[in-house]
Design a protein that fits this description.
The complex is a heterodimer of chains A (277) and B (450). Chain A has 277 residues and is an all-alpha fold. In chain A, helix 8 crosses helix 9 and helix 9 packs across helix 13. With 450 residues, chain B is α/β, with parallel strands linked by helices. In chain B, the strands form 3 sheets. Chain B has a 5-stranded mixed β-sheet, sandwiched between helices. In chain B, helix 2 links the parallel strand 1 and strand 2. The longest helix of chain B is centred in the first third of the chain and has 41 residues. Chain B starts with a helix and ends with a helix. Classes of the chains: A mainly alpha (277), B alpha/beta (450). The interface between A and B is large, with 55 and 55 residues.
Chain lengths: 277, 450
């Protein structure tokens, strides 16, 4: 039996911790709650501060769905985000393996250069990229959205750090058994680091999902664009359509919410491990 | 482990799906590309006049605003119905990004044929986007005939160095919206809105004192400088000299205009909200008066009906006895096409959207102003609509004194505009000396003129 005052102290500290966490969770959840509630309010109530709509309505959803080709844009967003994530992970895994496996002349310089590209703002390379995409005839296509983003310096750097932690003796042992580099990468390293790779993949997915400016530049028709461009249509300096915007945002959040529910564990890990974004 | 395996499989399947989506999409684009190619093949002859098919690309920011998309599309549809040999490919681009998009497309070798460009970028569009002067591509008599009935002031909006580069498309003027209920609560007569800035201050202080609402807010200190230009002009000043070489917003008149604004804030007559916040606050009936774009009218009208108060509007207040200079916001349509057939098709499109029918749609469906004054009296066009929407009268009356939004010269035009807005914000958010702030900003802006 512990000392009762110690138990009390422990209980008090636990209560305090929980209270703090509940308050923080409230801060995180409330904007989402407000989004959903506003989406269910008629236009006249949008600016009221009541926590529940006085008259529930789905009009905003109907209006959002009819104003933009939402189904198509959501599919495009999903396609682009998944394809971009998959290709970025693939190129990053190859690069990270190469940097870990071989210490060649100039490898430090090459790694440094890749790191530097991460620091170059998108606006600097946007026009040259756009000219190339136009030259290839990929404007207004999903290829135009995905291909310039198939490699990510951020992913290479993150994965390099992960791969470095993998025991070299295991790789050497696999080589002694006659395994090729390809086989070592996919049969020895990949299965063991899958959780870390998945975590980085989730961060890449979120970045791709939120991208606005590149789709804006590359696509012209709404049917060929992504969801973020559609959401912008409800915002204007001459008055935003808040109810409709919140309905569209709620619908746009659903796929990511489902993904989150499925991959909850990895997402939390990725934020803890990545310490970024 | 099982869930990780599932994740990997899911990712693979979805990547494959995405690739399939890419494939179908590319196919779609090839098709539309061949249409464009067909259209290009048809060029060279007088395509727009004959039966040859011409496609013009039209960048519009009204198409990128959900509430204005329908009216803009109606303009395109009616035009296409009347001109079956011309296809207008309407492309939505937000107003804040439209210049960047046009610039990128020029670099990529495929600029739009017609672009809806905001007036503050007029000089840049003329000198860098290759905007075509109507005088250069349309015979003089045809042009004169088409511009008959156009508001003379309105025509000046898209002119630079004596040539017409853009025809005004969607634009508004600054209007003093006010909440009639708050006026009554404060013991003011809603039938007698303030006409001068001195009265605005006095009314606002009374509203702030007698009600829970704030008195007044002057919008336009962020984003674009058209309202700032309207205030400086109404106090007898200018932002740029007539020869377009000297920045003049460091003048005594400009300083006087901004000092009045600062005084509204420091005296407590004005709230300290930003422009987005004040749109919400005014909609909620928490602000007595708001000077802002007339394009907000329909949104405010809906909010007032829902909130149980009456929306009223008055003209841009004056500085004492001086006449006001309501500066327009908004955009004009400019022809960027180099190809003669596309230029002619684009001219036809411009003719239609600025025709009696075009401005009827623009005013009644999109919420901007007609530049053909006669149509508001014509039962075939806007007479009925104006009777149902009397608030627009204030706006229409201001067209008589409409003053063009000045675009700054050179590649740094936007930085100059931002310098002015930053100075105004600095002045109204502090009690610092307005004269020092404005003169310093003018000197920095002058260095940016090329």
């Amino acid at each position: 039996m512990g000392n009762p005052s110690g138990v009390r102290r422990g209980l008090a500290s636990l209560t305090l911790k929980h209270a703090a966490l509940i308050a923080l969770s409230f801060l995180a959840v409330f904007p989402l709650y407000w989004m959903v509630v506003t989406s269910l309010k008629p236009e006249a109530e949008v600016f009221t501060s009541s926590l529940l709509p006085a008259h529930w309505t789905l009009d905003n959803y109907v209006s959002a769905w009819n104003s933009i080709p939402m189904g198509r844009m959501l599919l495009n967003s999903l396609g682009v985000a998944f394809a971009q994530t998959a290709t970025q992970l693939f190129t990053a895994i190859l690069a990270a393996y190469a940097f870990t496996r071989w210490e060649f002349r100039g490898s430090g310089l090459l790694y440094g250069l890749i790191g530097l590209t991460w620091l170059v703002p998108f606006q600097v390379i946007m026009i040259p990229n756009y000219i190339v995409i136009s030259g290839l005839g990929w404007r207004d296509t999903l290829l135009g959205l995905i291909v310039p983003n198939i490699a990510s310096a951020f992913a290479v750097m993150q994965l390099f750090n992960t791969f470095k932690s993998f025991p070299k003796t295991l790789i050497e042992a696999a080589h002694l058994d006659g395994a090729s580099d390809w086989s070592v990468l996919w049969r020895t390293i990949f299965p063991n680091l899958r959780a870390s790779i998945a975590s980085i993949g989730i961060l890449l997915f979120i970045t791709a999902w939120n991208d606005y400016f590149w789709p804006l530049l590359v696509t012209t028709k709404l049917e060929n664009s992504t969801m973020q461009k559609g959401l912008q249509m409800f915002i204007s300096s001459e008055g935003s359509m808040w109810g409709t915007l919140m309905a569209a945002t709620t619908l746009a959040s659903l796929p990511v919410l489902v993904l989150y529910l499925v991959l909850q564990r990895q997402i939390i890990d990725s934020f803890v491990k990545g310490g970024l974004r | 482990m099982a869930s990780k395996k599932g994740w990997a499989t899911g990712l693979l399947i979805l990547s494959l799906l995405a690739t399939t989506a890419c494939g179908s999409n590319t196919a779609g684009t090839v098709n539309s590309g061949s249409n464009v190619a067909d259209a290009s093949a048809a060029e060279g002859s007088s395509a727009a006049d004959g039966n040859e098919q011409v496609t013009i690309k039209f960048y519009s920011y009204n198409l990128a605003i959900a509430s204005q998309k329908e009216g803009t599309q109606q303009l395109i549809d009616e035009f296409e119905a009347a001109n079956p040999n011309i296809t207008v490919e309407g492309i939505p681009v937000p107003s804040t990004e439209i210049n960047a998009k046009v610039q990128a497309d020029i670099a990529a070798g495929s600029p739009p044929d017609v672009a809806q460009l905001v007036f503050d970028g007029l000089d840049f569009a003329v000198n860098n986007f290759g905007a075509k002067a109507l005088e250069d591509i349309v015979p003089a008599d045809e042009l004169a005939q088409n511009l008959e009935g156009f508001s003379a002031n309105g025509l000046k909006l898209g002119q630079l160095n004596g040539k017409t580069y853009g025809l005004p498309f969607t634009f508004s003027t600054p209007v003093l919206f006010y909440n009639a209920k708050l006026f009554e609560d404060a013991g003011l007569d809603p039938g007698q809105p303030p006409a001068t800035w001195d009265e605005v201050k006095q009314y606002a202080l009374q509203i702030a004192d007698k009600t829970d609402a704030s008195g007044v807010h002057v919008g336009g200190s962020a984003g674009n400088d058209w309202i700032v230009q309207a205030l400086i002009g109404s106090n007898g000043g200018k932002v740029l000299s007539d020869d377009r070489k000297t920045i003049e917003f460091g003048s005594e008149e400009a300083i006087g205009a901004v000092s009045m604004w600062q005084d509204l804030v420091t005296s407590g007559a004005s709230d300290k909200l930003n422009d987005s916040e004040v749109i919400e606050a005014f909609s909620q009936g928490k602000v007595g008066m708001l000077l802002f774009t007339s394009a907000l009218q329909s949104a405010f009208l809906a909010a007032s009906e829902a909130g149980g108060w009456e929306l009223k509007a008055a003209a841009l207040p004056s500085f004492g006895e001086q006449p006001t200079t309501p500066v327009n916001s908004g955009s004009s349509l400019m022809i960027l096409a180099d190809d003669a057939a596309k230029q002619q098709a684009a001219w036809k499109f411009l003719q239609f959207v600025t025709s009696e029918r075009g401005y009827t749609i623009i005013t009644s469906k999109i919420g901007y102003l007609p530049l053909r004054p006669a149509i508001v009296e014509d039962p075939e066009y806007l007479k009925g609509w104006v009777e149902e929407n009397p608030l627009i009268q204030v706006n229409l009356a201001q067209l008589e004194r409409l003053t063009p939004w000045v675009s700054y010269p050179g590649a740094n035009w936007f930085q100059i505009e931002t310098t002015l807005l930053d100075a105004v914000q600095k002045a109204i958010q502090s009690d610092d000396d307005v004269s020092t702030i404005m003169k310093d900003a003018a000197a920095r802006a002058q260095a940016l003129i090329q």
